[in-house]
Specification:
Number of helices: 5
Strand content: under 5%
Largest sheet: none
Helix content: over 70%
Structural class: mainly alpha
Distance between the termini: 51 Å
Number of strands: 0
Order of helices and strands: HHHHH
Shape: extended
Radius of gyration: 20 Å
Length: 115
Amino acid sequence: MMGLRGLAWLLALQSLGELLSRGLSLPFPGPVVGMLLLLVALRLPAVREPVAACANFLLSHLSLLFVPVGVGVMTHLGLIGQYGVRMLVVVVLSTWLGLAVTALVLHLFREKSDA
C-alpha cells in the first residue's frame, strides 16, 4: 500500500509540473519541473517514505524496464545496421562533451568558492 501511495505522489508531482510548465509557458519540460517539486517535497516524511517504498519496488524490478528497449532494437535491427556506427559516434562524442562541460562547470564553481 505504501508503494502505491508513493507512485501516486510521483504521478501527481509530474502532472503538477506539466500543468505549471504548460500553464506558465516555462522553458522547461513538465517532468523537469515535477522533479524539482519532488526534490522539495522529499523533505516531508509523508512524501519521502512512500516514495522510497515505490523506488525500492521499481529498482527491484529494473531489469523488466529493459525489455521494451530490447524489443525495439530487434525490431529496427536494419536501421541499426545502417546507422549504427554513426549513432555510436554521436553517443560517444555527446557523452564526452557532457563530461567535459560538467568538469568545466565544476572547476569554475570550485575556483569561485575558493576566492
